Amino acid sequence: MQTDDQQILWIEEPELGYSGKSYLRLFAEGMTTTIKHLFGPKQTIESPEERYQPPDPLLYRGVHRLNRDEQGRVKCVACFLCATACPAHCIDIVAAESPWPDREKYPESFTIDELRCIFCGMCEEACPVDAIELTSLYDLSGKSREEMIFDKEKLLSVYDQTKDAEPMRSKREPLG
Amino acid sequence: MPTALIDGRELELGEHERLNGIEAARRLGIEIPHYCWHPGLSVVGSCRMCLVEVGMRDPKTGQISMLPRLVPACNTPVRDGTVLVTNSEKVQRARAMVEEDLLLRHPIDCPICDKAGECRLQDYHFTYGQEQRRADIRPFTSRRRDVGSEITLFVDRCIMCSRCVRFCREISGTSELLVVQRGAHEEIDVLPDFPLNNKLSGNVVDLCPVGALCDKNFLYRQRVWYLKSHPGVCTGCAIGCSTWIDENQDHVWRIRPRENLAVNRWWICNDGRYDYPHVHSDQRILVPRRRDGEAWTDLSWNGLIRELDSRLRQAGRIGVVLSPFLTVEEAFLLASYARQVDPQAVIVVGHVPVVDEDERFPGGFIIAAEKCPNRRGVEAIASRMMGRVLAWEAFLGEVSSLGLRGLWVSGGYKRPWIDEATVDRLRGLELLIVQDLFPSPLTERADYVLPAAAFPERDGSYVNRNDHLQSVRWAIRPPRGVRPEGSVFWELLGRSGLYDAPGALRELAAEIGYFHLALGTIPEGGVNLKTNLLA
Predict the structure, then answer these.
(1) Which residue blocks in B407-470 are alpha helix, DSSP H?
(2) Which of A107, A78, A104 is nearest to B140 (CA)?
(3) Res. B427: pLDDT tops 90
(4) The pLDDT value given to residue A176
(5) Cβ(B239)–Cβ(B366) under 8 Å?
(6) Where in the sequence is the domain holding B458, given as residue range(s)?
(7) What does the buried/exposed string (b/e) look like for B190-222 if buried means 16 or more CB atoms within 10 Å of the residue's CB?
(8) Is residue B419 part of a domain?
(9) Residue in chain B lying closest to A105 (CA)
(10) Whether A176 and B144 lie within 8 Å, measured CB to CB
(11) In a domain, B389, yes or no
(12) Between chains, do A104 and B219 touch, taking CB under 8 Å as contact?
């Protein structure tokens, strides 16, 4: 950027007067905000007794799920686009020929390291068949690091758990 | 000097050069898209992707007259006065139309197609195609059919360039593949009971510009954009084909031919293509071991080289066996070391595996009977250092009379190569050091067993049976516990720093006349060591 750029409007900092130098006005303004919140409606909740409800569960980016097709099989076609898009490299797929006559390729194993994941939602965007989606479940916990590496079965079970509350976002036709 | 005019730029042609439009344009760095044309196959001009405007310049008046219609560049010989226009609006429109036509019947299943990422149809569509699809028919699904033991065909992905058909007719000479039906129903197929099972069949997968022909050994294993390609040399036979070693995270997934007109042209055989599984075999020797009485002790490399050095010096009278799987640098370093320990050291050329006879194909491709990459190079070193070539079999005959006390056998054999009876003839040695890929009767008998590196793990050069030397770098790191021979010999010689293969080759070239052409930088395709001797 050049300093003589016509797009830049240069302005001088205003000179502070006596009241400005004493900061009294700003102090009063700040305290007003604080006091307002003291008596206003409470924003915090008593977790975990109370659960936070995301305003729009379909937009929230929580734990992943692997969707199932109409026949209950994993919808994923193992194209590796999510793994390619993933900036944290937390998705590991082993592809194989599918055991079903109407489908060509499927993931033999599909694991997501939830500890490594940064929940950016790029996998969901990259998926050409809408097989991977992020749910509104946010309080995932486990006793060990290994437990937090979710395999295909676990990710499918997340789908079973959340499919009623959060329907599949789109119904794109299957590939090939 | 004949001169052609391509996109307004002049190209000077050689006197007797026969180039077509695509090759001539490539000289000027202009890429003409094409599917069906391949430099190694006959020209059919069927895909219509390389359509260009063609004209002639009158040599006297300099006036240019253009043909009214577009002409395929692959089928247009470029002569003196030929004018090609490859970037006019008319040409671009024709390309976009060809792309649109091909995509009408193409199942756009790129996410599950193995070719995605290196697919001509994909690349050309992004470069030359139009953004909107105008057809409203839904493309077919992927019908799949096995055409051979290694190759599978996704029928609907095919764009009917017929490269595979021409390959089977012209290069392998087996003619398994053919085109059945006509018009929009055309398909590639094989006849019943005559599958695509020739020894060059893997090449049709590389030839296929789309994902129609796929390799069953590679199918769905990796996406191609994860693979890194390293130039390599096939160690399957004495031809030493140039290859690409495609690797991801130190695992070899695929071997492809690398164009080298002096050696293998554009092809490799299936033996070389599917030669990599042994690299990742769990049978491999992965740790150096020492025999203590009847028991074996696993060793670490720390201090081991010094221990081997002192044992060899104790033995005094020693011999080394240079395996034909070693690179010339490694063989040279080992032989030099042996000479340093014992000036009278016996230098033997290791066992050369030979299977049947050479296989020759009508397209000129040869699979050699000699199943090792570097007999020639190792023999040249042995004959210079030893004064004669002492082959393994001859050595076994005279081993008792040589009075050896220590022997270093380098291996790197991918298949079993030695039996008990042979090993028995080596009895009476005080110290036997064996360096090999897999356990064998010989490693059972050894005092020290050292792991050897597999071919993608080595740095160095190979000399094929036609005296053609090719240099390559390592493609993958060896498994933990394995040190490539080069670095072991480097340390045995007491040299500091990392193993420097190009440096070792320069040393070798300076010392042994046979290699003197390897003194300079080695070009990508290698050098023929006999070139100057003939001149």
Answers:
(1) 420-424, 441-445
(2) A104
(3) no
(4) 46
(5) yes
(6) 289-534
(7) beeeebbebbbbbbbbbbbbbbbbbbebbbbbb
(8) yes
(9) B112
(10) no
(11) yes
(12) no
Reply yes or no on whether the pLDDT at B535 is more than 70.
Answer: no
Band (pLDDT 50/70/90 cuts) for residue B108 is: confident
Please answer whether residues B235 and B276 qualify as being in contact, where contact means their C-beta atoms are separated by less than 8 angstroms.
no
A126 close contact with B: CB closer than 8 A? no
Size of interface A-B (CB pairs under 8 A): 34
pLDDT tens digit sequence for B259-310: 999 999 999 999 999 999 999 999 999 999 999 988 999 999 999 999 999 9
Beta-carbon-side half-sphere exposure of residue B502 (alpha carbons within 13 Å)? 7
Q: How many domains does chain B have?
A: 3
Q: Average pLDDT across each block of 10 residues of chain A; the chain has 176 residues. List them in order.
A: 76 88 91 93 88 88 94 94 96 94 92 96 93 92 94 96 86 58
Whether residue B64 is found in the same domain as residue B147: no
Name the residue in chain A with its Cα closest to that of B111: A79
Residue A9 DSSP symbol: -
Contact A176 B223 (CB under 8 A): no
CA distance A82 to chain B (A): 11
pLDDT digits (tens, 9 = 90+) for A8-54: 888 899 888 888 888 898 999 999 999 999 998 888 889 889 988 88
Same domain, B258 and B293: no
Give the DSSP letter of residue B187: E
Angle, helix B485-492 to helix B501-511, in steps of 10 degrees = 70
Cβ distance B109 to A175 less than 8 Å, yes or no, reads yes
In this structure, are residues B59 and B81 in contact, taking their beta carbons and an 8 Å threshold? Answer: yes
| Distance from the A125 Cα atom to the nearest Cα atom in chain B, whole angstroms | 14
Q: pLDDT for B64-102, tens place per residue?
A: 999 999 999 999 999 999 999 999 999 999 999 999 999
Mark whether B225 and B301 lie in a shared domain: no
Give the per-residue pLDDT at A135.
Answer: 94
Tokens representing A85 are 């898009």
Please report whether residue B104 resides in a domain: no
Domain membership flag for residue B100: no
The mean predicted confidence, pLDDT, of chain B is 94
Q: Is there a single domain that holds both residue B236 and residue B328? A: no
Asked if the Cβ–Cβ distance from B142 to A176 is below 8 Å, we say: yes
Only one residue has tokens 């160690």, namely B235
For residue B407, pLDDT beyond 50: yes
Select the residue from B220, B223, B225, B227 to test the A interface by mutation, using most A Cβ atoms within 10 A: B220
pLDDT value of residue B139: 65
* DSSP string over B106-163: ----GGG-TTTTS-HHHHHHHHHS-SS----SPPPP--EEE-SSSEEEEGGG-----H
In eight-state DSSP terms, residue B66 is E
Whole-number pLDDT of residue B140: 63
Burial class of residue A25, CB neighbours in 10 A (0-12, 13-18, 19+): exposed
Could you say which of B95, B119, B153 is where a domain stops?
Answer: B95
DSSP B456: G
- The per-residue pLDDT for range B391-401, each reduced to its tens digit, is 999 999 988 88
